[in-house]
Amino acid sequence: MNNNRTKSEHKRELIINASMKLFTQYGFNNITMKKIADQAGVSKQTVYSHFGSKEELFTAAMSDKCMGLILGEEDLSPEQPAASRLLQLALDFGQFITSEDAVKTHTLCAFESQNVPQLAVVFFEAGPNKLINMLADYLAAKDEQGELTVPQPRWAACQFLSIMMGEAHMRAELNVPDTQTAEERDDYLRASVKFFLKAYAPE
Fold it and tell me: Residue ranges of the DNA-binding region (predicted)?
């Protein structure tokens, strides 16, 4: 049973990776489940056994890629101190949003949203909105514990993520070479976390 489950999870991962590669390279409408199956090295029946439709597969791929590269739900447990956890989140998030996969995915959704509007909704719900909600819940818990003062957790979560994007993200989206070193980018993120913590420090 355990071996079968492992094989199933492995095939699911192959399908997710294949779909993301094809979606970002050729666009959502130009890809079929058969092409995804061929790219993944599995049968079309196997793809449908995991995902009932191309839209469902896209949703799963967005969720896996957007969240899997940043954090898991257990990584924002209220027991973790705000300063250290938010710093690690900032560093991980900053690296993720400038990655080739993230930029390609964002570009895909922006382009395809004209013809397939629901894709942008799927991307937002599976990626950005899920992270905003998780971070808002964490900040609300920190407010209850008295570690921070956060009267509007969702606003604060959006502020945190927006600040962390910085110049590196703007350059990545426009395909403009980044002149900052990795150390300079990390210094910016550390300073931004300090700024955020100071803004929401207990009164």
Answer: 32-51
